[in-house]
Each structure stands twice: as structure tokens, then as C-alpha cells.
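S.,

As promised, the flavin mononucleotide run. Input:
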Amino acid sequence: MTSNAESLRNRAFQAIRGQKPETVTVLSCLLAVEDELGYIPPEAAEEVARVTGSTINDVWGVASFYTNFQFQPPGRHRVEVCWGPTCHVKGVMPVIRQVMDILGIDGEGATEDGNVSLRFNTCLGACANGPVISVDHHLMGRITPDGARHVLEEIRNGIPSEDDGAS
Amino acid sequence: MPPSFEEIREQGIDRWRGLTQGTRPWVRIGTALCGKAAGADAVVASIVERMDQKHVSAMVSEVGCLGPCFAEPLVDVSMPDGSRVVYRNVTPELATRIVDSHLLEGQPLADAALGVIGNQLNGSIPSLWDHPMMKPQRRIALRNAGQVDPMDIHQYAANDGYAALHKALTEMTPDEVRQEVSDSGLRGRGGAAFPTGTKWNFLAGANDPVKYILVNCEEGDPGAFNDKGILESDPHSLIEGVILAGYATGATKGYVFIRHGHDGPIDRTWRAIEQARQLGILGRNIFGSNFCFDMEVSLTGDSYVAGEETALMESIEGKRAMPRFRPPFPAQIGLFGKPSNINNVKTLAYVPQIILNGGRWFAGIGQDRSTGTAILCLSGDLTYSGMAEVPMGMTLRQVVDEIGGGVPNGKALKLLQTGGPLGGVLSAVDLDIALDFDAMSKAGAILGSGGLIAASEDACVVDLTRALIAFCQYESCGKCFPCRTGMTHLLEVLERICRMDSTPEDMTLMGRVGRSMQAGSLCGHGQLGFNPVSSAVRYFREEFEQHLNDKVCPTGTCPGSWHSPTRVRR
Ligand SMILES: Cc1cc2nc3c(=O)[nH]c(=O)nc-3n(C[C@H](O)[C@H](O)[C@H](O)COP(=O)(O)O)c2cc1C
Ligand code: SF4
Ligand code: FES
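Predicted complex:
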């Protein structure tokens, strides 16, 4: 357990140190940690506080404000669904329903087996090809409930999501 | 010693000639967010693999967004003889055939083409610029989008790139640059349409050796993707605009503010900044002048309100993105306490062309107090969705019917949602409104950042309004209560209406809540947050009343099932 905590702390520190911009802030550090670990464990928050000379409360204050930060380890695969107005108009709701049914969860979070975590996004930036979801950072536009099922099955069977689910 | 402007330009022109008139074909593949969402990565892989198998020698470049996102993935093949064909909806399988037939045998696949550019190929394929979506366009900020490799500064240089900066630094005083921008009539494309020249004068008047130019690419508006589109397609046009803004106002550093996670725009902007530094276009004594300026990218977390200009500064400082009180204004006390100027990506991307061609030239495009072009993002129920740049003054009906190609499948258009979630809803029967900041706000909608979401007759206006308010509620930063609790109340009422569970008094209640929000909120989020409801009721009162009084949803949408995240405030 301790060694795991140490390794998290270490990885967080390396991520914080490796930032490109000159301007290093609590937020920039948290984003770097999230990119590396996929979530913000307490050890990482402590590192951010230490490096930026802030209090741990300041760090949690920032982390809890931005909706992207997660505080539990993510699933192995990450699915994001867009619930923005364009995707809404283009029929994303049945897609989201399908995704949640297949994953057996109701809303954001990870599946019980830790294989997949689901997040809602307000706009994935590819509205012209809505409805849009993203799987492990790959955008998939013009997605249908069937297309979503297909992609999730591939994940379950361990096929990397290299191919796109676009129609 | 960095190269001179003339050397950069020469090298650029050489590079461009090699690509367009060389001995090898040049294949450009659109890999902006729209392209990727349609599967462009697999197309790139397929083309490269096939070329390898067949020993085809061609230059392959990943470019940004040409505009017709509905036809993505786009593959644009130009041959040494100068002919150029743009293919639509390319699959990995079609990509293989393009290599075999077009690259190897010189036989274009007419059936799969969207259009040709330039040379007509005996008329067998129509011209891309005659496509209904492309024809009415006038491209200023998007002139290079989809045409140049955004990762190659030399291609930008070959197409007038950095000529405006060179002109300003060698022939113009900062006052003259600001005057040119004022003469152009340019108004901010981020939402508030504030005159850019006036804003720059505020910053120029601030007496401080350290000042900042902040570029707003938060672009949290769902339905808007043109800021990210410009950064992915032609980041140097923004960088040149930022350096010009810095010179005109005496600023020392620029920040490009982007939401994390959008790797395409972020990586391409970083790459472009690094290339500009290498050529001495950013850094000390730019083009041998005594002007020094540098830039960096600043990432933010997911927060819509971070796009509000004072919240943006809080976010760059690494804090919660909650708006500040004004005064003091950013031009007095801004980022890190220093005078700052905030502009949208599109606003700044116009500036190089304005300096090059003159403010009068820009003012001659568009109408009245809305000069220049509008950069639109068309999405929703339209035949041609994507990004387009058209002269201001075109009517919304023309935009929908011509550029958007109308609603597919013979359906009728019902409404347009414009200007992002804080904008408004316009009815399809009332679309003879010009693309014009003032005309649109008079009609109860805003042009805002240029997002236009079309919905067909199948859409329920109450359901859409609920979705918009769900967004606004989720994104309220929580700093002031009229917005924080007001949005929550509005959402509760709208959910009741959608569930056919409301009372007629609910309309009055919403009005009261909305007025408190307008009067008592600190920033635009709360002040404008009632717009989606008020504009929808203005054009579709009857449909609301059917839900309220008769408990029927005429489109059969409500009560649908909707899934949206709930915001827990910690
Ligand atoms: C809630 C809220 C969100 C905003 N989001 C953005 C945004 O994402 N991008 C943007 O350019 N402006 C946004 N604005 C407008 C900015 O506050 C500011 O007016 C703009 O960036 C100024 O640039 P301009 O003068 O070039 O338009 C937002 C305003 C509010 C109230
Ligand atoms: S109006 Fe809303 S978003 Fe703006 S400061 Fe107040 S609570 Fe925050
Ligand atoms: S609204 Fe879904 S990608 Fe923009």
C-alpha cells in the first residue's frame, strides 16, 4: 500500500515537473497529474500543494470546481458521451441510454469490474458530425445506438478501438 | 542570427512551389476534430499503407478543416499537372482505391469526388467552389483552412504569412496599427461584439512595462467549433494576429487559453509557437525591430464560465474560474494584476489581413456596423453541416437554405438556435434576419460565436429549451445566487413541463426567476441565462401552452428520457 502511494506521489511529481508552459499553477499541475494518472489521488494533491506553495485546501478547491477532475481511479477504457444541444437534437439520448445499459451503470462513473468509465461531456467539438462519443480519446461521430453497442463490445473483447465507429 | 522576413518568404514560396507544381502528387487529408470524428485517422493509415505497398511516391499532409464537415473525411489530391480533386466521405477502402486509380494511374474517381479546385478536368467533376455550401463564401480568416499544413510555418509564409507583421514592424507605428483596426470596424467575435480598436486603445493607454494579450479559445459553446477549427487549420494566422495586437498595444506576452483534452488544436498551436520562435518571429527583436514578444498555451479544465473574460484570468492564474467584479477592468488590472486585453480567436485571426489590405477594405465587406465576415458553425438537422465564412448581411434564410442545404429527408425546418446556450431560439418562419450583430440581437437572438444549430419539425422546442437550461444550470459557477439557484429553479420548472406535470402559473414563475437573474447576476452567464427560455416562448408560446394546459407534446417527444449529469457543488 505504501509503495503504491509512493509511486503515485512520484508519478504525480514527474508530471508536475514535465509541464511545457512557463506559467505553472495549481490548475496546470492538476491537469498534468490527471493526464498522467487519470485521477487526482490525495498524494497528488499534496504534491501539487507542495510544489506550488499552496494549501491543500486551495488545491481541493480548484480540483472540485472543474468538472473534468475525477477522484477515483478510472476504468481501463474511457468512454465520453456528448450531451450538448447539437448532439441532443441529433438523437444522442438513445445512444447514452444504450451505453449505460450495456455498462450496467446509471450516470457517470466506472463499471464494477473497472473495465470502463463513463463521463458526460458538454461538447466534444465535432458537432457537425453529431451525435458524438469518444472512446479512449478517439472521437466517433454520427454514432447510433447500434454503433455504440458495437464499439463497447470491441472494448469488452479486448479489441483496441483503432477502427472508427462512424457510419 | 534568425532569418530575415525576405528569407522566410522565399523559403516558403519555394516549399509551396515544390508541393503544388513539383514532380510528386500532394495528398492532403483533413484531420481536424470533424475529420477525426468521421474516421480520418484510419484513412491516413490506409493511404500511407497502400502507397507503401504500391511504391507510390507522394507527399501526404494532415491538414485542418476545409469547411464541409458533413463530407469528412476529406481527401484532397493534387497532381503535378495542377489538377486537384477533393474526395468526400472517404473510407479506408475508398482510400485504397484513390491510391490505385488516381495516384497510380492518373484516373480520378469522379463518383467519389466532392469537387475539383482550379482545373476543371474536362468538366467531369464540378468545381468545389460551385458547391452550394462553398459558393456564397468569402474567406478571410479561413482562407488557409484545409489548404495548408498547419504544422508547416513555411506554407503559411508562402501565402502572405507574416507579411502584415513585417509591414507593421517596419512601416507602421503602434498607433497606426490600432487606427487601421478601428477603421476596419472590427467587432469582437467572442460574443459581446465590442469594437476591437477601442479595446486595444484601452490597453495601449495603460502604463505598465508588462501587459498581456489573452486569446480566448475556451469555446465552451456547444455547437461552436470555429475557434478550435482555426487553431487546427491555420494556427499561424492567430499567432500573427496576437503579435500584431501586442505591438499595437505595447504588450509583452500572449496566452492562448484552450480547454484541455482537445489535443488537435492544443498540439498544433504549440507546434506553431515553437516554429515561430525558431524563426525569430516570436522572441526578442522580431524582424530586427526592437519589439519583443512571446506566447504560450494555457490550458483550463472543464468549465464553461472560464470563457468569461475575468474568469479566464482567474483560470490562467490557476484558480477556480469564477468571474471578478468590474471595475477594475482587465485593461487596468488584469492577469496577475497586469493590464490585459482579451480577444476571441476569430477576432485576432482577421487582423493580419486587415493590416495587409487596410481597414477600409474590411469595412467595405458586410453591412452597417457589422463589418467583415461571419464565421459560422452549422450543425444539427442540416444537409450540409460544417464551418463557413460569409459576408455579414446575408440573411439567415440564405444561410440555412444555401450553405446548409436545408433540412434533409424532406423535413421542414422548425427553429434555429444561435449564439450558444446563452443565445436564443429563432423560428423558421422568421429567418429574414440579416447576419448582423445588431439585427440579430433585436430579434432576440445573438450571433455570438457563430454557432447555428438547426432543428427540424420533429424537435420539441420545450425539450430543447430544457436541454439548454440543463447545460446552463450545470455550468453556473455558483458565485452568485440569482444565477446559481435561478438556473436550478428554471430547470426544475422545465422538467415539470416536459413531464406534463406543471401548472399554468409555472410560466409566470419562470418569468419572475428570469428577471431576477437578469438583474442580479454578476456575469453574462446569469444575465443572459434566461434568453433560451424567453426567446423560445416568444416564438413558440403555443407549444409551451400545449404542454402546460393540454398536457400534450405535439411532436411526441415529451416526456422523453433524458440523461444529463448532475452538478454536485463541493
Ligand atoms: C459565460 C460566458 C462564457 C463565455 N465564453 C466565451 C468563449 O468561450 N469564447 C470567447 O471568445 N468569449 C467568451 N465569452 C465572452 C468573453 O467574455 C469576451 O467578451 C470575449 O472573449 C472578448 O473577445 P472579443 O472582443 O474578441 O469578442 C463568454 C462570456 C460569458 C459571459
Ligand atoms: S452569473 Fe452565474 S456564472 Fe456568472 S458569476 Fe454569477 S453564478 Fe457565476
Ligand atoms: S454538441 Fe456534441 S460535439 Fe458539440
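The beta strands of chain A are 77-82, 109-110, 116-121, 133-135, 138-140. The CA atoms of residues 29 and 48 of chain A lie 6 Å apart.

- D.
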